[in-house]
Amino acid sequence: MATISKLSNPCLNYSSSTSFGTRSSSTPKFFLDLRTSNSTTFNHRLSGSKLSLVINPSIKGSLCVKCSQADGNGSSVKRTTLHDLYERQGQSPWYDNLCRPVTDLIPLIESGVRGVTSNPAIFQKAISTSNAYNDQFRELVQGGKDIDSVYWELVVKDIQDACKLFETIYDKTDGGDGYVSVEVSPRLADDTEGTVEAAKWLHKKVERSNVYIKIPATAPCIPSIKEVISLGISVNVTLIFSLARYEAVIDAYLDGLEASGLSDLSRVTSVASFFVSRVDTLVDKMLEKIGTPEALDLRGKAANAQAALAYKLYQKKFSGPRWEALVKKGAKKQRLLWASTSVKNPAYPDTLYVDPLIGPDTVSTMPDQALQAFIDHGSVARTIDSNVSEAEGIYTALEKLGIDWSFVGSQLELEGVDSFKKSFDSLLDSLQEKANTLKLVSL
């Protein structure tokens, strides 16, 4: 049922001047709060003749949709910078978060989001802090399911429901976009064959054409990626922190396509998730330890410099005779996906890992902070290869200062895998405690 509220609505707490225009203080303003049966909330602002969108920072993952009654309907959603990002620069904006109800994604899709990524840490937060999973959890536990099985049932339902929401985008782009990613158990990061079996099981369990099975880019999982791709399963390769490992990931994708034996490769796709902000977090600490003016001047520059060189490598690897032979069979490029795009250092601009990494055939997956910032004041222009020579200079300068890129990649990979394992284990422990309590109550 719709309700009208005055200007105390939390939408007003956001910036008074955004990329969607400025508010007029002379016009009477109200908010129409539409709460639908699927729990999706739209906040409609009735002021003037223009329709626009504003992120509501107090409602996670939601948008305030400002509408006009000038023409009596006010049903359209205004274009945002996310639409421009895709249509003008060929980069797909994805959302790095997933929780129930997945219908909260609807306003984001309308604002231009074209896919979703998830990971064990995201599900740990979603399931442990929400009551939305209680009914299914209770049913599974009372049905005799073990905790591992309960976890996957909860996760798979979210993934399936999200896949349904992005199905239209997937169909309209002929499988080019509209994906939802789900990761195999982080406990398998050092298990080649276990990862293959887990990917096969998860792909069959979800049973959606627009699902990406996430596999970490650890050395033991590089052969897993090749094998899974050869089976016709689309993969999001995650936790890539170095150029050397990225090249190994590309080769695994190409090897997998060639080994598949499929005459039509058009439905086997992949993205390579190259992490950015975490690189600066580690390298900045190393630079501060060095402490020279030259070193300190390079803070906040390592991640984007390496990313620019990753894009250069991408262009090189997906060209030439080998790639052209695969294109004839319908193969699609393994797109670079920029991950870890939220700013960890508050001294840096909040779009630091989005604005400078825009380029065709790429994906930028953004958590709430980065997504809201980019919609509000992001710049849409091709930037990823606008100054490759500068990126090469920064990369080399860091090496000369003693920054070992191999060490940086290995260390961040260890930290990433460990973080996901801890989130996974913590969630399973909390689910077990919850199940034990439920069983005691039912006795």
UniProtKB/TrEMBL annotation:
Alphabetical list of Gene3D superfamilies matching this protein: Aldolase class I (3.20.20.70)
Major location (coarse): cytoplasm
Native source organism of the sequence: Datura stramonium (Jimsonweed)
Record field: catalytic activity: D-sedoheptulose 7-phosphate + D-glyceraldehyde 3-phosphate = D-erythrose 4-phosphate + beta-D-fructose 6-phosphate
Annotated compartments: Cytoplasm
Stretch forming the signal peptide: none
PROSITE patterns, per the entry: TRANSALDOLASE_1
Similarity comment: family membership: Belongs to the transaldolase family. Type 2 subfamily.
Known role: Transaldolase is important for the balance of metabolites in the pentose-phosphate pathway.
Protein keywords: Cytoplasm, Pentose shunt, Schiff base, Transferase
The protein's name: Transaldolase
Pathway: Carbohydrate degradation; pentose phosphate pathway
NCBIfam families for the chain: PRK03343.1, tal_mycobact
